[in-house]
Amino acid sequence: MGKSGKGALARFVTRVMKTRKLTQAEVSKRSRKPGQPRSGLAPSYVSQIMSGKVYNLTADKIAALARGLGVEPLDLFCASASVKEALPKPPDPSAHKLPDVLAVLELMEKVVVNPDLTEMIEEVAAMSERKQAMVVAFVEDLREMRARRRKGRKGGQNPAAN
User: Fold this and answer.
1) Which pLDDT belongs to residue 101?
2) How many Cα atoms are found within 13 Å in the side-chain-facing hemisphere of 140?
3) C-alpha–C-alpha distance, residues 39 and 28, integer Å
């Protein structure tokens, strides 16, 4: 795994812990298998993952960390693996009703590495559905304004005159 993969897992784990307000000790405790108090991850191991010192986790460690964070093991694998190269791009994205997985992953990577974008997403996610709809309407208005400006430039018009 390249250096970006190491950092990606550390960023993902740190982001999940911050979002869910989890400490290393809590992740450690939650990582244990039910009825097996000696299983799971030590808080120091969680710390090493967060710092990027540990990044090549075994399947058992991925499962334990997923339990500790309350996420799916696949989420951790995707965060730690070079998923963009591993997933084939569909030949015709318009033929699929689901969003293009690679486009979503690329967008999420931008969000993870940009604290301002992450904070914006967290704020919107915490809003009521009504307020989220207002944000979506605002973004759609911005998109329309940008499209009008582009159209004005292509037609040789001054976009400021619109």
Assistant:
1) 67
2) 6
3) 9
> How buried is residue 117: exposed, middle or buried, by Cβ count under 10 Å (0-12/13-18/19+)?
middle
Say if residues 54 and 62 touch (Cβ distance below 8 Å): no
What percent of the chain stands above pLDDT 70?
Answer: 77
pTM summary value: 0.50
Taking the C-alpha atoms of residue 101 and residue 127, their distance in angstroms, rounded to an integer, is: 25
Give the dihedral of Cα atoms 42, 45, 50, 55; nearest 10 deg. -140
Question: How large is the angle between the packed helices 3-19 and 101-113, nearest 10 degrees?
Answer: 70
pLDDT band at 80 (very low <50, low <70, confident <90, very high): confident
- In degrees and rounded to multiples of 5, residue 36 shows phi and psi of -125, 80
Q: How far apart, in Å, are the Cα atoms of 38 and each of 33, 34, 49? A: 9, 10, 20
